[in-house]
């Protein structure tokens, strides 16, 4: 199968509506998620009051905790949850937060999780170091995992490779800034690395540490990857159409950094002559006004609808990956989570 749907996707509507809030889907794993939350808070402290404030900042109000939730849901869909899943849930959330702290430096973003970014409050130097602190702490913890189904070396290897691919995706993206001719194939590869990879890793880890067969672990990894693709395409839509009060983070950052995302790529390729020149001029001169003007052009050619359909197509692929699992409440939660990823407002 073609890894990426570069032509117009067939599916237009999700099989079921996304829930109002992602937390609604975490019912079966809520107690384990709460313990992960407590462990995160316990791990991320410092005796130095000023360092303590910076370290804790990334956790204010929290995020959606999607990555630990994926790890737990995949684990419970396959077998029993153990302490190893909770420890690995802490690890993947730390890695994710580290990538956000560094990403906000790259994007010069000022708002994250409804509060100032670390770079806005303490500057880029502290942000780089906080990201490093989170990455290194995550690997220190991963090295202590114990389980009947997997060892620390396996966990560290999988998480290390994925983290490396995330950084590779982010590097490719920064090197592509300003490239208004970026192909859709390159776009899909970049988001596969920077976002889908960690979601895939979480699902593989959860499954493996519950004793999954190679076939089931591969299928759940693919589920996580397809969900992650849907998630990032939806995120790229929100950058153009969302509002900061709801997303809790800086919008318009992709435009400001001249990042070609799927709605923009589709619009560029749909326009010719004058309108295409106008689009390129707006993209080359980012401003609040250009966000509105670009959004009008994207809307007019169906660029938002195309990106939304493509995200839903990835969610459908994710659901198809679940065919290896018996019917269960957990399987249903995973399927609904895939549709949440593709259609969300935060
Ligand atoms: C933000 O991830 C970065 C992307 C991959 C788009 P989330 O939207 O999961 O961020 P939090 O953890 O909920 O804040
Ligand atoms: C970055 O993508 C994803 C990461 C690997 C951190 P974005 O730059 O779109 O993420 P947001 O919108 O800042 O959360
Ligand atoms: Mg960003
Ligand atoms: Mg974004």
TrEMBL record:
Any Pfam family hit: polyprenyl_synt
Highest taxon above the source species: Bacteria
Entry keyword set: Magnesium, Metal-binding, Transferase
CDD domains: Trans_IPPS_HT
BP GO terms, sorted: isoprenoid biosynthetic process
Broad EC category: transferase
GO MF term (any one): metal ion binding
Keyword tRNA processing belongs to the record: no
UniProt cross-references to PROSITE patterns, sorted A to Z: POLYPRENYL_SYNTHASE_1, POLYPRENYL_SYNTHASE_2
EC number: 2.5.1.90
Chain positions covered by the region annotation Disordered: 1-21
Cofactor: Mg(2+)
Family assignment from sequence similarity: Belongs to the FPP/GGPP synthase family.
Descriptive protein name: Octaprenyl-diphosphate synthase
Organism phylogeny: Bacteria, Pseudomonadati, Planctomycetota, Planctomycetia, Pirellulales
